[in-house]
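Fold this complex.
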Amino acid sequence: MTSPYATDLDKNPANYQPLTPISYLERAAKVFPSQVAIIHGASRWTYSEFWRRSLRLASALAKLGIGKGDTVSVMLSNTPPMLEAHFGVPMVKAVLHSLNTRLDAPILAFQLDHAESKVLIVDREFSRVVKEALALASVKPLVIDFDDPEYGDDAPYPRHERIGTLDYEEFVASGDEDFVWSRPDDEWDAIALNYTSGTTGNPKGVVYHHRGAALMAYTNTIHAGMGRYSVYLWTLPMFHCNGWCFPWTLALTAGTHVCLRWVRAKAIYAAIADHGVTHLCGAPIVMSALLNVPSADKRTFPQTVTFNTAAAPPPESVLAGMADAGFAVTHLYGLTETYGPSVVNEWQPEWDELDKEARAAKKARQGVRYAALEDLAVIDPVTMERVPADGETIGEVMFRGNIVMKGYLKNRPATEEAFEGGWFHSGDLGVMYPDGYVQLKDRSKDIIISGGENISSIEVEDAIYRHPAVSSCAVVARPDEKWGETPIAYVDLKPGETVTEEDIIAHCRKHLAHFKCPRTVIFTEIPKTSTGKIQKYRLREIAKEL
Amino acid sequence: MTSPYATDLDKNPANYQPLTPISYLERAAKVFPSQVAIIHGASRWTYSEFWRRSLRLASALAKLGIGKGDTVSVMLSNTPPMLEAHFGVPMVKAVLHSLNTRLDAPILAFQLDHAESKVLIVDREFSRVVKEALALASVKPLVIDFDDPEYGDDAPYPRHERIGTLDYEEFVASGDEDFVWSRPDDEWDAIALNYTSGTTGNPKGVVYHHRGAALMAYTNTIHAGMGRYSVYLWTLPMFHCNGWCFPWTLALTAGTHVCLRWVRAKAIYAAIADHGVTHLCGAPIVMSALLNVPSADKRTFPQTVTFNTAAAPPPESVLAGMADAGFAVTHLYGLTETYGPSVVNEWQPEWDELDKEARAAKKARQGVRYAALEDLAVIDPVTMERVPADGETIGEVMFRGNIVMKGYLKNRPATEEAFEGGWFHSGDLGVMYPDGYVQLKDRSKDIIISGGENISSIEVEDAIYRHPAVSSCAVVARPDEKWGETPIAYVDLKPGETVTEEDIIAHCRKHLAHFKCPRTVIFTEIPKTSTGKIQKYRLREIAKEL
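Structure:
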């Protein structure tokens, strides 16, 4: 017998609408039209203007024929067009593909081709490398230049020549602000595409859906303690997991985005003091920059600023310095595949009473699931059983819930592998404590996190191996006060060869983006197991002691 | 050609889980196990205890064979079992049916039969009326008594004899705290059932789903400004739209529930001062009670308490008094069908500068949609077109989104009527202002809201008509300082009959719950249109002037 609760109680447009974060911006624009949504240099946009510009962008894209499932790529800094793209692109059911502005031309070209990019919006800061990428790529997207009027004459990097056929401002102006935006047909539809750095072979395209973006926005407000009219400073690149989904989050609370093209301590302090910033996110390197700033560049401010950081847990001395400077630091953990951080080191008030060492041990843990993540577990990947919650038994950290990607674009084998057994396999090894907090113990994927960017050690090794004098090599992370980690290369030369550290680094720069190149090269015999496997843990120990 | 974004990117347990608020309590119990979840008199339960008691309740229900689609009814005050039922019942995929404790036996019996109730948990305060109801009802649910150890000897109402076959505490103790709870098979599955007062004929059973409850919890935290460790005082009955979904909301922020069996100003002030209450909700009558309390019963407190109120907009004098007493009042609007309030009078800071009259005009508006409501409109129900947003053109207020009910239980015609044209028809008439704020102008359903309870004028009229001396009658709302509104009856007697006001009221009490009976009876000729329709608006005008 069918239950009465399942009879004549179906979905209809009145009681079921696909979740989408676009709806949050629509509400903010209607309810708080004159609230400042975006600050960029001397420019200001209200929520009403932000909404209407996003509609114009959508309308202009629609006029080009861009629609469902089309990819719109952007190579942009943390500037207003990047925020507009987070709404304008999905308004026509298209997918926002954010390029990491630090990548080199071959990887950019690969991504554009793989994503089948139809439109590419590019900031003039990056025009040169994008031009190279387009020369390598097979796709021929329509290129739109963004010529930032707030670029500034004191810019640390030059503006390059325009390479596009359209100007961003003119393109937006050509759109209609009365454009009727499209809800996704299904909340499972794609909203964004972000490529991982890739550990072996080519980068993988992580696909986000409207449902996850909408839920991530809610859960972010809770874990960031983000109330109405919060002021958010853009120190975290928006090309990283869509800025951990904060472009969508702030629309929920009618918060103010403070754009920041270049992450410099002086500018951060100025923004905090001048605009009343309440929240920012960033890699540990941003904290170092804030603490090591010349006193002339430092500013004081009355508010306590919430600083969300991911990657390595911040050392006690850094946390103490940050507290003195007016910041409350929260330690997060996640992956591109989980919409950015989805694990938080929820700090228990009673831990403040612990001694320094015990407090540091609590800080070192990655933590517990976000409210919108349904489960976080440490699992034996062979048996798929949870390991004992004893803080000692190592397993793979796995995720389950609605803020986990749809999968990897056009990569069924990788998607199936990632979701094997109904869990997302992070590739990170960790332990579960009796209180339910997870701590990472090692990364199985050989990733080096430098300045908040993931570097695949295997990709660096591949580059080094192309040098004719190299017999064997291994790349691991070296702890670094400023960058968190940097790549260090151990190189074994072929008999009779003589090569310098500088030679190897210069060689790498020909094949890799600058930030991926080793900072240190040590010529040595590579320690291997009896079966010939490189003992990376020993190399990591050596790196730590350097 | 199929889009690559729709190929090999399907749902699986790793990236898709049905939304449910149960997950929030599970997280709170794991992450904040020793945080106080519930205060009730001298008793305290931590989040760990709250969770384990909910699991025990679920386990005990499962042992009885209660499962998917079964109805568990409760006749409970704002006490811990009511909170436990909000999680324990859906943990076995059953549906929580909350009975309004102010109703009389025939309506309770109707609801139990209509809901096909399997289990009924009843507080001893209500045992007598429930016993009568069970005598009238066809269903024979298993009855469980809740004998509240915090009842208190100073109780204003007596505890009646036990009527059940089981004791609640023993029943919970018989459950297993290691019980494995069931996620809903689908987030569209029913979680709760709440009957409307019914305007014509029988009450309608409004069915909520897990998806809506989970989203309402998120959106509540935003509109109530509810941060971590908020302290929520239960002045709003949990049987009203599941306490506007706050039982589920607080689990998101690990807030503390302060139970309150009887809403008395002295107890409210004591709770606020003693427990640091940050939030409460209630009908305007709660505000009156707080303002008219003897000074000996009043307490001062350092925090500003958020007071959410629905129904009629509070008058300026009440708001000023509330501000002086330490409360910030937010005016909300919604219906049982929209999970409680889903419209908020978002107060714009610049409105503080307006003069008294203009400010009152802004306060009188119901407002704008919650973030989780996708659309709120004033629509001409004939053409289904939106009326002009001119603040003058009257239409029907309609809702659309994920916090709108599944429909009415076993009532396809009413469900279809309510959702006609893809919108939920509220039955309330209103206008839309140019700034997107809605204001109610009249209720098309002839509802009187007295002390926060809905009274159907038609139901009262039906009772009066049963009196043999009555020729014609009409019941409308009379404005009342204490209750908001009370029913006033206009009665036209048959020729030669003489009946007093007291006679009519005594007659009504035989057929209706006490609170539904008219407070005033006026014997007069009923004004009618030329076609014989009663001119209720004229009667409302007379009532206003009394």
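The radius of gyration of chain B is 24 Å.
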